[in-house]
Amino acid sequence: MSTMTTPLVDPMAMRQTMGRFATGVAVITTEDASGPHGMTVNSLTSVSLDPPLLLVCFNHGARTAEAAVASGRFVVNILSRRQQAIALRFAARGEDHFAGLGLEYAGHRVPVVPQALAHLECDVERVVEAGDHTIVFGAVIGVNTRDGDPLGFFGGKFSDITQHGHEPEHWFF
């Protein structure tokens, strides 16, 4: 094991390189004694189908992460391509993200983003500190989906995600 403190890879190079990995865009919402909280994320993945688990990565000190851990519950709101303004709203720090939004609630008393492509209601299963992030594992206790096209994120910008048919794409020819 190396004892070097200088990173082998420049953090900005890492960010730019990982930006080549296309993701979806979601808003994590929760509510604690101080009220509703939410933030935009794209560092989200399914961990297990049986039992249903997912994980979300938050920057250390994110109020939404702290509120989700304190309350023990959160919702993953997967955004549609028409919800870029919602993604930007919840990405702004220090704002009242819910102002004028018209709160709707999931089954376990957590606010949801209206008209999102999907909602996944989660109970906090485990919290792990790793690098400059807090990883929150959620036990999925309820889901709700609707038809529509997802909002994508690629190269630091919003993008469209286009579905292909089931035939293989022979890009190597």
Automatic annotation (TrEMBL):
Keyword Secreted part of the UniProt annotation: no
Keywords: Oxidoreductase
Any GO molecular function: riboflavin reductase (NADPH) activity
Residue ranges annotated for the Flavin reductase like domain, each copy included: 18-160
Gene3D superfamilies attached to this UniProt entry: Electron Transport, Fmn-binding Protein, Chain A
Pfam families, per the entry: Flavin_Reduct
The protein's name: Flavin reductase
Organism: Nocardioides cavernaquae
